[in-house]
Amino acid sequence: MTYPFQITAHQGQARTGVLKTPRGDIPTPIFMPVGTAATVKALTLDMVKQAHAKIILGNTYHLMLRPTAERVARLGGLHKFMGWNGPILTDSGGFQVMSLSKISKVKEDAVTFQSHIDGSRHILSPERSIEIQADLLGSDIVMQLDECVSWPAEEKRAREALQLSARWGLRSKQAFGTRDTQALFGIQQGSTFEHLRRESTERLLDIGFDGYAIGGLAVGEGHEAMCETLDYSAPLLPWDRPRYLMGVGKPIDLLEGVARGVDMFDCVLPTRSGRHGQVWTWDGPLNMKNARFAEDNTPLDAESDCPASRDYSKAYLHHLVKSEEILGQMLLSWHNIAFFQALMIRIRAAITAGTFDALRADLLSRWKTKDA
Ligand code: PRF
Q1: Do 209 and 348 fall within a single domain?
Q2: At what angle do helices 251-259 and 222-236 cross, to 10 degrees?
Q3: Of 207, 238, 267, at which residue does a domain stop?
Q4: CA distances (Å), 156 to each of 81, 170, 191, 219, 229, in order?
Q5: Pick from 5, 53, 108, 142: CA 20 to 30 A from residue 89's CA?
Q6: Each residue of 141-153: pLDDT tens digit?
Q7: Active site residue 296
Q8: How crowded is the C-beta side of 160, counted as CA atoms within 13 Å?
């Protein structure tokens, strides 16, 4: 099913709108918290909802290994299993195979790999990835299997990967067929080569997807090169379909991605950095382990409606982190997810009001010097 996507306002390339799914409306631009192993790490779903998340991400790779896709299916699908009744987007697995599994081999038919958990051998083909995501997990937004090359990549290598991804895209579409309630997104590849991004897009458009992702970025090229690639990559994609920048990023990357026409983002950053003592604020990142917070009685964000941001002092959070208390990981992850959502809420409001350029300039001036 091609979910209705309405763009309600735009400013330059930046757009805001609504993606309507049977499990709920997704206001865009949106940030999707990562729930890799059927959990947004350290958070209950009530906390995730209170942080204003509307859609979360799950991973084929992790779930097929543990508890296995078949078991999730027997237990009623991923939504029922984890207790999330909103939309779920699942990644197809290829990217996680390359980055996490012990040994992997990409062939025309499929990728074979050894589990990072117990070394067991597995095969993931475009068809199997669709079966896991769409039939067994019951994902709302299903991603095609693709091949992502690391950076820097030789042109020949990047072309091979985008062409394999395009062939896998066609096989994914054929395996997906037409469905009443689920959507399928294609993935653009091509590293940092404009002509390859163009070729990739042409091939995806020939196949026809419900939405389009930009893959192969945030793989080591750095913020500037990513922005340069997005300058031409995002506008290649159809204006009237959602565009998803995979695995991105820091608040500044979200801001610059939106400015270039991206509608959807996901990243482990807010939860992972929260578990390691780092928080993101309107004034940039803070390391809560720093002794300067030891007697700071102010909250992270008095204006926030998230309890983690508003109701606890930095001194208390510093103490929890220094003591390696579980609550420290929970509160910092909660604050970060709420902050990323608050950023997207402000971005959407600004595009609607025609003040996105001013918001972007203001936040860039706060963040540029602080490695935000
Ligand atoms: N492809 C897929 N998932 C991904 C990526 C990709 O290129 C990236 C790259 N940043 C993150 N997650 N399928």
Answers
A1: no
A2: 30
A3: 267
A4: 43, 21, 11, 18, 18
A5: 108
A6: 999 999 999 999 9
A7: no
A8: 10
Q: Look at residue 251 and tell me if it is in a domain.
A: yes
Say if residue 206 is in the same domain as residue 324: no
Residues 212 and 326 in one domain: no
Per-residue model confidence as pLDDT tens digits over 276-286: 999 999 999 99
Do 318 and 223 sit in the same domain of this protein?
no
Are both 348 and 241 inside the same structural domain? no
Catalytic residue among 91, 140, 210, 263: 91
> Residue 248: how many CA atoms within 13 Å on its side-chain side?
30
The ipTM, to two decimals, is 1.00
Q: Which of 230, 251, 267 is the last residue of a domain?
A: 267
Query: Which pLDDT tens digit goes with each residue over 322-351?
Result: 999 999 999 999 999 999 999 999 999 999
Query: Of 57, 59, 89, 91, which is best to mutate to test ligand 1, by the most ligand atoms within 8 angstroms of its C-beta?
Result: 91
Counting every residue, how long is the chain? 372
95 neighbors 247 (Cβ within 8 angstroms) = yes
12 annotated ligand-binding residue:
no
- Whether omega before 235 lies within 30 degrees of 0, making that bond cis, reads no
**Among 360, 216, 319, 337, CA closest to 273:** 337
Q: Is 91 a catalytic residue?
A: yes
Domain span at residue 328 reads 274-365
